Amino acid sequence: MASLDERLLKSRGWVWICRCLIWFIAIGFLASETREVFQLQQITQLTQFALFFLLANYQLSIARYHQAGRDDALALKLKSCSLQMFFASVLAVSDAALDELIHSIVTAPVAAGGLLTGTLFVVGWLINVAMILMAALSLDRTIRLLGRNLRGA
User: Fold this and answer.
1) I need a labelling partner for 67 at 20 to 30 A (CA). Which of 16, 44, 78, 149 fits?
2) Cβ-count burial of 41 within 10 angstroms (0-12 exposed, 13-18 middle, 19+ buried)?
3) Residues 9-13: what's their mean pLDDT?
4) C-beta of residue 45 within 8 angstroms of C-beta of residue 92
5) Containing domain of residue 143, as a range?
6) Closest residue by Cα to residue 14 from 153, 145, 125, 143
7) What is the pTM of this model?
């Protein structure tokens, strides 16, 4: 008889709950990032980069594990998820650099054009949206793939 842990891992419920949780967190994070863009408080940029980079590394480790187990199709899909998460970490660094540029323009002794600052705010917000969507989609897909793999095992 399967243990409670095995039954829980093979159920679709935990996969669905994790996937929903990822999207709720992503929406909350996007709301928080939007507020920070307008306040120029970029406290979380380094943390975002580190978190996304570590998640990409974790996904790549899972892919290597499955590749060693000769499940090349799953390994390739997980590597794709890892690459997507890595690109999200690159966007986090890009957003931090753009925010520093905006901050230097706003605090410059010479009054900079409001149109340039406004445009950079929009670009920064779009980078945040892309970063969060890439990270959430990557994590969602990874959990879905691992959930299918566990049910099939």
Assistant:
1) 16
2) exposed
3) 62
4) yes
5) 4-152
6) 143
7) 0.67
CA distance 148 to 127: 31
Is residue 53 within 8 A of residue 107, CB to CB? The reply is: no
List phi, psi (to 5°) of 152. Answer: -80, -15
CA gap 86, 126 in Å, rounded: 18
Phi, psi of 33 (to 5 degrees): -65, -40
Distance in angstroms (rounded) separating the CA atoms of residues 120 and 126: 10
| Domain tally, the chain | 1
How far apart are the C-alpha atoms of 78 and 65, rounded to whole Å?
10
- Is residue 14 within 8 A of residue 8, CB to CB? The reply is yes
What does pLDDT average to over the chain?
77
1: exposed, middle or buried (Cβ count in 10 Å: 0-12, 13-18, 19+): exposed
pLDDT tens sequence across 30-76:
676 666 655 555 566 667 777 787 888 888 888 888 888 878 888 88
C-beta neighbour count of 2 within 10 angstroms: 9
For residue 70, the 8-state DSSP code is T
